[in-house]
């Protein structure tokens, strides 16, 4: 069992702003490569459409340093199911946000990845292993066949981002000013394949 209380006590939260100032002013001038969706698809399994996806999560040096300093990060994976309309904008009929917290636990020297939607967490020996797990979405339930009108056309789209608004309060203003912290992907979309009527 992880000693969360001791971990919090061991991190000098009162100096959080100073830590982040050092990270910010040590930044490179150019923004790092941002997140991107490598592939994504849906499959109908027992009446439920399930999502599979592979995502690249390159992290800037500032973000890596922040994690290793004990600052928790929230990464969102946003999914939308859209009904296409001939003369109007597509209508969003379902929206799901998968929220993950990535944190370094100093006492155990492990990286902890928590799936906040369900409160499940796993630990990893290094940052690369935690990112590899975060990069894969497997069999995530999206929508049931019964929720869809089989006479309509639907599109699924996915994007992911680092949530600046979920950073500790002293860090947010500086993060908004630094391109190193703007890590997100464009929408990746595809048509939903419906079964024959």
From TrEMBL:
The organism's place on the tree of life at top rank: Bacteria
Pfam families: DUF4390 (PF14334)
Protein name as annotated: Proline rich signal peptide protein
